[in-house]
Amino acid sequence: MVEHIASEVDELVLGIGSADDSHTRHDPFTAGERIMMVTKSLADSDLVIYPVPIEDLNRNAVWVSHVRSMSPTFDVAYSNNPLVVQLFSEAGVEVQQSPMFDREKLEGSEIRERMIVEAGWRELVPPAVVDIVEEIDGVERIQRVSDTDGAAAQPNPSGSTDPE
């Protein structure tokens, strides 16, 4: 996607979403770790890239102004997320969508699920990401935060498996 966008721009502000979240099944890595992954993966690019952590606000009406306050100035937003497209459009920002590239295999949730079961995730990410994930024991982290304590599967004193 970055290579596609690079043909249209001189510089790219790359938003790292949900920067306030980490150590969960959906967001196992910190914003800093994700910035390292992006920066090292794109180190050979001729494009000037500014990775910017963007925290979730859960107040959509002010989200675009929040993004602008955290970012260098930008003229065009690229997103395929319908809510993001709507919010930037309402704020008067030109929005372009990029083509999806092998979405079924390259979607973050698919890669995270493969990490949990340790089945073929390495070939889906750049080598720099593999190095960082291994350096921080990222597979073990996502496996641990994805585990349950088994309480939901344990029978309660009445013999039911309902935890209530």
TrEMBL record:
GO molecular function terms noted in the UniProt entry: ATP binding; nicotinamide-nucleotide adenylyltransferase activity
Domain Cytidyltransferase-like residue range list: 1-114
Pfam families the UniProt entry points to: CTP_transf_like
Any single GO CC term annotated in Swiss-Prot or TrEMBL for this entry: cytoplasm
ATP-binding found in the keyword field: yes
Record key words, sorted: ATP-binding, Cytoplasm, NAD, Nucleotide-binding, Nucleotidyltransferase, Pyridine nucleotide biosynthesis, Transferase
UniProt EC number: 2.7.7.1
Catalysis: reaction(s): beta-nicotinamide D-ribonucleotide + ATP + H(+) = diphosphate + NAD(+)
Major localisation: cytoplasm
Biased composition (Polar residues): 155-164
Involved pathway(s): Cofactor biosynthesis; NAD(+) biosynthesis; NAD(+) from nicotinamide D-ribonucleotide: step 1/1
Residues covered by region (Disordered): 143-164
Subcellular location: Cytoplasm
Gene Ontology terms: biological process: NAD+ biosynthetic process
Homology family: Belongs to the archaeal NMN adenylyltransferase family.
PANTHER family named among the record's database cross-references: BIFUNCTIONAL NMN ADENYLYLTRANSFERASE_NUDIX HYDROLASE, PHOSPHOPANTETHEINE ADENYLYLTRANSFERASE
The protein, known as: Nicotinamide-nucleotide adenylyltransferase
